[in-house]
Amino acid sequence: GVNLTAAKERGQLIFLEGLKSCLDLLFGEEEEQSGQPSPLQFISESTSNLKALFDFIRTSLTPAGSDSWKGPVLLVDDLSVLLSLGAAPVAVLDFIHYCRVAVCSQLKGNIVVLVHSNEDSEDEENELVVNSLCHHSDLILWVEGLVTGFCKDVHGQIKIIKRVSLELRAEQDQVQIYQYKIQDKNVSFFARGLSAAVL
Predict the structure, then answer these.
(1) How far apart are the C-alpha atoms of 18 and 135, rounded to whole Å?
(2) Would the pTM of this model clear 0.85, i.e. be above it?
(3) Do 128 and 144 sit in the same domain of this protein?
(4) Which domain covers residue 179, as residue numbers?
């Protein structure tokens, strides 16, 4: 329900189109703006240094003059792509750490990160990143298909894990599980076993 084009025009959204930037960089069509290197410069280098990407984020969120971001949100969709582009897991985790310091601690904002995971996956680097992010996250939304297979009325389930243990070590994480159905323009959530088809 959010008009991203209007938000971008009002200066409320800064968007880095990774695929286009990636292709421009690989095929030599990247135009350096204000003498700054491309945020995805690591693709064409031998080391997987994500400093240019972090610098782009920090510069984008730095208030210009009297303007300031009130509770900025950094959305990273999809962090697994950085691994596919050749970044090392340690570089990706360092990048997220620096983003957390800049966005969460200094600017009092939030970071939302999408990563893909599969229990049967043999991609050890991706699983290392996923596990590390899970250990450092306040809230985890784990979306997966139904273990029983396809169903036309229930498309999958979402597990919401609130990491209380990060603050109070004596308490366990709070876990809620809902099932969902994707519709044309929205998603319906309901408790397990309580879909309209069952009732």
Answers:
(1) 27
(2) no
(3) no
(4) 138-198
